Amino acid sequence: MLSFLHTAESNVAAVGKLMAELAPEIPIRHHLATELLAEAVKAGTVTDAVAAGVRARLADAAAEASVVVCTCSTIGAVAEAANGTLPAPVLRIDRAMAEVAVAKGRRILVAACVASTVGPTSDLVAKVGREAGRPVDIRVVLIDGAWPKFLAGDIKGYEAAIIERLAGEKGDAEVVVLAQASMAGAAPAAERRLGLPVLTSPRLGIAAAVAAWRRAKA
Length: 218
Prior knowledge:
Elements: E1 2-6, H1 10-22, E2 28-32, H2 34-43, H3 48-62, E3 67-70, H4 76-81, E4 90-92, H5 95-104, E5 107-112, H6 115-132, E6 137-142, H7 147-151, H8 155-169, E7 175-178, H9 187-194, E8 198-199, H10 202-217
Parallel strand pairs: 1-2, 1-3, 3-4, 5-6, 5-7, 7-8
């Protein structure tokens, strides 16, 4: 079993679609915990209570899985830190994206639509840069006003807000990282408009998860 911990309901369908495309033979299970992201967004950070909730949900998922994937960037660091305490390895879906970003350029623009995601994603990119021996220059843009559109189901408006803000924040960036999986739909148009790589986590992260599952089952 390959299990996924989500904090946004839209990620369930998105991940299911990618798994059907990339590895339809692998059995999957989704664990949805929207309250974890809601509380982190409300607090502006991952509180001790949120972290405890993440660990509890991961324990449930790991009890039945060969690999567990956290699809939420906000709680990704907490999820990754649980490795070694659970019966299955835990991956964060955005690590593969960070690895590609570091390989593509030094000046990296990290874009997020909720404040609680900024720190975890920026820290991850910086950490991956250090691990690769490639120090990076990270600039952050918080796209205010976009998240309420997403919560209201206005996905077109959400993606348009992301693209428009990125166009104004491009600067000297060599690569853009979209911190949240929910932002992935904006990537193709943003890449065309900015003329530089705009990376998202779902496909890269799922491919890494599939590879990890196959190694675990080998």
